Amino acid sequence: MTTQAIIEIKHLSYRYEKDIVLEDINLTVPDGSFLAIVGPNGSGKSTLLKLVLGLLKLQKGEILLFGQEINKFKDWQQIGYVSQKANSFNTGFPATVFEVVSSGLTKKLGMFRFFKKDDRQKVYDALEAVGMKKFHNRNIGELSGGQQQRVFIARALVSDPRLLILDEPTVGVDAENVNSFYQMLGELNKRRGITLLLVTHDIGTISDKVSHVACLNKHLHFHGNTNEFEQLRGEGMSEFYGHDVHLLSHQHDHGGVFK
Ligand SMILES: Nc1ncnc2c1ncn2[C@@H]1O[C@H](COP(=O)(O)OP(=O)(O)OP(=O)(O)O)[C@@H](O)[C@H]1O
Ligand SMILES: [Mg+2]
Predict the structure, then answer these.
(1) Ligand 1 site, residue 217, Cβ cutoff 6 A
(2) I need a labelling partner for 130 at 20 to 30 A (CA). Which of 39, 61, 98, 136 fits?
(3) Of all protein residues, whose CA lies closest to atom 4 belonging to ligand 1?
(4) How many angstroms separate the alpha carbon of residue 1 from the centre of ligand 2?
């Protein structure tokens, strides 16, 4: 029996105005996998996620979600998303953790409805899953960046998605807590069977946490399981980042970029 693909991307290209930022991407994300997308700044990672989420219009190629063409796909509550900017949150925003997470339900059900008992439980369950239940009454602005990020993940989880897409979720998380953060994601993946698609720069710490890695730099330079990725890393970092990064680090050597 073959496992169903949650996402299938075929010959996908995308351009903003004249600039081609993605070219001929082919990528399949099987059900139950935990895929990390890595690549340098500007390599098209967020663009790829936005195309998968239907936030950008498909220009060339195909995207299938749960086996269905993205243009016909309607079941968006199956997909949870936390954007790259989620944690640059206005800390003065007057909402409790509970309210922020429950807004993930109103999105689906409409603003003007009352919570059922059942819905409250869903909010607590989502907070429990990210280890933030005891903060439910806290104002969102009174949490650390890493704690806020967990709350946004709970917000994405509350509608019980099968796929969770996270764009650089560890940006506000300090080095000490990155490990437990990935552990929490690993548990969502293993215990709840949620397929995870994550963009990250934490190349060093991901490979024992995720099942697959994709290296993107306009083209997909590599896609495989973590063993294959480790093997590739052994052969040198610049290889999987592609030649553009090579060029960048070259500039660093001459002091051009940060001076
Ligand atoms: N709305 C836009 N209009 C025009 N160009 C854009 C737009 N959004 C992104 N780009 C360009 O497309 C390229 C890819 O951007 P993208 O945000 O996908 O990169 P990224 O890999 O997510 O980078 P980062 O690691 O910095 O988040 C960049 O060169 C960027 O400047
Ligand atoms: Mg990005």
Answers:
(1) no
(2) 39
(3) 16
(4) 36
